[in-house]
Write a structure and sequence with these properties.
354 residues, alpha/beta, 9-stranded mixed beta sheet, 38% helix
Amino acid sequence: MAAEASASEIDDLAARFRRFAEVECPGSSPLYGILAAGVAEDRELLDLAGRVRPGQPPANMLFAAVHHQLLFSDTGHELAGYYPDLAAWPAATDGAFTSFRDFCRRYEQPITDLIGRRVVSTNEVKRCACLMPAFRWIASRDGAERLHLIEVGASAGFNLLWDRYAYDYGDAGRIEAEGAPFVLRCEVRNERRFDLDRPLPVIATRRGIDPFAIDVSDREDRQWLQALIWPEHKERADRLRKLLDWMPGRRPAVIRDDGVKAIKGAIGDVDSNGLVCVFHSFVLNQFSETARSSFHEQLRSSAADRPVVRIGMEWDRDADAVVLDAERHHGYDSERTVLATCDAHGRWLDWSGA
């Protein structure tokens, strides 16, 4: 592998892989934790990971590209024996990194191709278990019976259909949905303040914006979504397969466009009867600082004549946690409310919204 990245870029990549291993993998993926820790100390693999598109998380991209090769190419490589979704009796993770390094050397070109043209598409539908209470909360607070949903970074549009899924919050309650393809289970850690009695608004508009929108009828797009699932996450993989079978004919409109450039026009296209709700999950971390600033400015300027609400589920570096928040713009006024902290994959929700 050619050494292309500068020393400072390599140092930054190493720190990101260490953080991935220490913060994101514990309790979620022992295999990726071992691999990330190894990559952090390997100059050649760091250089390979550095070939991702600007703004893309290098660990997620590198591991998804390798997973893709193992899932859909007949490599016969021993690395597959360490993956719980590929081996009936996975080998101990301690020995995985040596095989991983060899695999990346052998398949450098297809891995480079994948990470250079793909992105981490937001595809975790279980995040709806965290987003859904936020939509109900904002609709109740504004007295809105109709919502116009616009998702930035919509991928395949799964999360635009949050009202079509059933939910189980344990002792905090359940929400049924006729014809739901599955039940999304989520632990509520602050039941005292969690309220499922708020009325469910009517969804008047569902629109997604994503320059890399996923087409669930396209074989390669479907395979990329599958490769993004971490190898220990059998429940997520099973749920994705059900979604891919259920989705055709139900997929909302997702336009291939830049969210910053297209958001103002998308807001202007919806009718005046209802509350505009722009939402995103694990998308703003892929924006540059300039793009994030422009995105928020577009929302503020779109709210000159009508309220516009933004709901976000993003990693907050200051809080060192995933934060669910709602921000209401109208005229010159803006009001932000932190509603919860939550698990990145929607497994639990610590609700603090009023």
